[in-house]
Known about the structure:
By secondary structure, this protein is mainly β. The chain has strands spanning 3-7, 10-12, 18-25, 34-39, 45-51, 58-60, 68-73, 78-83, 92-98, 101-102, 106-110.
Amino acid sequence: EVHLVESGGGLVQPGGSLRLTCIVSGFNIGTVTMNWVRQAPGKGLEWVSSIVSPDSRTSYADSVKGRFTISRDNVKNTLYLDMDSLKPEDTAVYFCSYSINRGQGTQVTVSS
């Protein structure tokens, strides 16, 4: 059974940083494309970043490029999203995803 559990969200001031973590069970994340997506209040899902297997090639939405970094630890079967220079418009619930599977999400709020 597939499980994805996100954590690491919180309240941070503009310009601050957070690291999101997604612990995965039920499949090996090193063999698939993993994604981070987000949903801001009152808006639809927005793709944020992907990491591809097997070469770990990464891609980012223009809105986060240069500020966010996706990575994974295949031994721990864990996906990460390092977020720097956070902006109020980054406020959203962040989900890790594989295919149609998503976790419960973790809330990120950027506010002074």
